[in-house]
Amino acid sequence: MKNLRFLLLFIPFASGVIINCEFKTYTYSDIGSGYECKLNKDPSIISPNIVISSAKGTHQASMSHEKVTSFYSWSKAIHYIPYGLNKIFPNLFSLFIANGRIKEIHQKDLEQYPRLVYLTLYDNDITYLEKDLFKFNTELKFISFNTNKINQIYPTIFDHLKKLEHLHLDVNQCVDKREDDRSGVLELIKKLKIYAGSLLFLIFK
Description:
Elements: H1 2-9, E1 14-28, E2 32-39, E3 50-56, E4 70-74, H2 85-88, E5 94-98, H3 107-111, E6 118-120, E7 128-129, E8 142-144, E9 152-153, E10 166-168, E11 178-179, H4 182-195
Parallel strand pairs: 1-3, 2-4, 4-5, 5-6, 6-8, 7-9, 8-10
Antiparallel strand pairs: 1-2, 10-11
InterPro entries: KCNMA1_auxiliary (IPR051432), Leu-rich_rpt (IPR001611), LRR_dom_sf (IPR032675)
Signal peptide: 1-16
Membrane topology: Single-pass membrane protein
C-alpha cells in the first residue's frame, strides 16, 4: 500500500483529451493576422491538470499544426486551463478562452507559454490574480480579464510586462477599468498599487 501511495503522488496530470478544431485564418485588430484552432466541440476540462493529447480537424491548404498561432474557445465546459496545447501547436502565441467556468489561474498554467503575446480570459469566474502569475510571460502585449469576479489583484503583478499595451480589467468586483495604450496601462497599474490593500480598492471603478 505504501508503494501505491508513492506512485500516485507522482502522477499530477491526466492525459488523453482530444480536441476538435476548425482551422481558419484570422485577423484581429489588436494582434494582426494568423492561423487559428477554433474549438468546435466542447471537451470536458472540468478537473485540474488535464492534458490535451492531440487535435483533430481539416487544415487549409499548405497549413499544419506548426502554423497555428492562436487557440480560440467559447465553451462552458472548460473549468481549468488545459495543458499540452504548446506541444501540439509549438508556435502558439495567442490564447482566447472565453465564456468558460475558470475560477482560478496559476503561474504553472501560463509557464508553458513563454512566447504568449495575447491572453483573453473574458467572461469566466476568476476571483483573484496571484503574485508572479505572469513571471514567464514577458512578451505579453494584450491581457483581458474582462467580466470575471476578481476581488483581489497582487499590486505588482504587471510591473515586469514592459510590452503590455492593452489591459482589460473591466466588469470585475474590485476594478472596472480598461486601457488600450501603454501610457494608460502604466497609469492603471499605478492606481492598482495605490488602492491595493485598502477598502477603497473595493470601489475602484
